[in-house]
Every structure is written in structure tokens, then in C-alpha cells.
Design a protein that fits this description.
The protein has about 200 residues and is an alpha+beta fold. About 40% of the residues lie in helices and about 15% in strands. The chain contains 8 helices and 4 strands. The longest helix is centred in the middle third of the chain and has 25 residues.
Length: about 200
């Protein structure tokens, strides 16, 4: 039975774990629970531009490991997630507001399209923001379920895109491995002091 924990405990105990039990498997129900939580992550204009690719196939994971400079967590963790985003999600604005009052739809949908149309840099920035928020939801959710995780950008993005058959107008933000740790993460490298990082009103 996996333990549950409160949010602040999950934040304190979440670490980037590299060593996983390769024999442990997450159930389909656990994977769904974790990713249904990720679907509650906020996105600009509610456009839900993230896509979560769950990789469990051994051959595909071996290929991903090779494209990740042979990092063992890619194959040893219970699942490897590739967090992607649809860069043109803003073009389907009506989908994200179907339950809103008609007046809200008529106001928000044109704003969404107008804000992102023709602005590739903003589309990419928004994709990364959405992926970043969702990734933290996933990692904290995994920790609350009793699992560990590791966010990853140490891989050949072009090769991974080829392996997963990434569609045009999508981008990869990061990988996250999730599983049962064999040993804890190394001690924290050192946090900057609160007074240096937390500012008030202006710099």
C-alpha cells in the first residue's frame, strides 16, 4: 500500500532520483491517477497545450536510453514520460470553453487566437510554461503516491522526436522518469539563502 502525504511534505521530500527498481511496475490505475492530476494543471486561456506521452514499451525505452547518453533511469524507472506541447493549440480555442457561458466564449476565444497568432516565440514560451507547471504537478503527485521521479533534459531532442514520431507543430519540453527508488538521491547541493532569492516590491 503506497503512503499518502501532504503537499508541503511532498515538496520537501521530492528529489531527483536516478536509481530505480527495474522490476517494479506501476499499475494502469496509478498511471491514470497521476496523469489525471496533471490534467488539472493551469494553462493560459485554458488551452491545455501539453501532451503526456507514457512510454512503457521496452524496445522504445531502450532507444530512448541510447538517445539519453545511456542514463539508466530511462529504462529502469516504472514509466518514462515525455512532456510535449502542441504549439498551435490556440487555433482550437472553442474546444477549451465549451462549458462556459456563451458570452464568455465570445469574449475569450477571439482573444486567445489573436494573442498567439503569428507569434512563434510566444507559442514556444507558452508551451514551456505549461510543461513546466505540469511537470511539477506530476513530480509532486508521484511523491505523494510514494514514488520518486527525475526531470530530464539530458537527451538528444531531435533523436527522441524521431523515436516517438513527434508530429509537426509539436515540441518536446522534458522527460520525467517515475518509479520506485532503489536508493535515495544524493544530499542537496546547497540552497541559496532566502534573503537573496525572495525580494519585496522591487530589485
Amino acid at each position: 500500500m503506497l503512503r499518502k502525504m501532504d503537499t508541503f511534505t511532498a515538496i520537501r521530500e521530492r528529489r531527483s532520483v536516478k536509481h530505480y527498481d527495474p522490476e517494479h511496475k506501476m499499475t494502469d490505475a496509478e498511471i491514470r491517477q497521476l496523469l489525471e492530476a496533471a490534467l488539472l494543471s493551469p494553462t493560459s486561456f485554458n488551452m491545455q497545450n501539453w501532451r503526456f506521452l507514457v512510454v512503457t514499451d521496452p524496445e522504445e525505452r531502450a532507444a530512448l536510453r541510447a538517445a539519453s547518453w545511456d542514463q539508466a533511469q530511462v529504462t529502469d524507472a516504472s514509466i518514462t514520460l515525455i512532456l510535449c506541447a502542441k504549439l498551435k493549440a490556440h487555433e482550437e480555442g472553442e474546444r477549451y470553453w465549451t462549458n462556459a457561458p456563451q458570452a464568455a466564449q465570445q469574449m475569450v476565444v477571439p482573444m486567445l487566437k489573436g494573442y498567439y497568432d503569428g507569434r512563434a516565440d510566444l507559442q514556444r514560451d507558452e508551451a514551456l510554461r505549461s510543461i513546466g507547471i505540469a511537470s511539477q504537478t506530476i513530480m509532486l503527485g508521484a511523491k505523494a503516491m510514494g514514488y520518486d521521479s527525475c526531470p530530464m533534459v539530458g537527451f538528444d531532442f531531435n533523436k527522441v522526436a524521431e523515436i516517438i514520431k513527434l508530429p509537426e507543430d509539436y515540441m518536446i519540453g522534458m522527460m520525467i522518469t517515475v518509479g520506485k527508488a532503489l536508493k535515495p538521491a544524493n544530499p542537496r547541493g546547497g540552497q541559496l539563502p532566502y534573503e537573496e532569492v525572495v525580494l519585496k516590491d522591487t530589485f
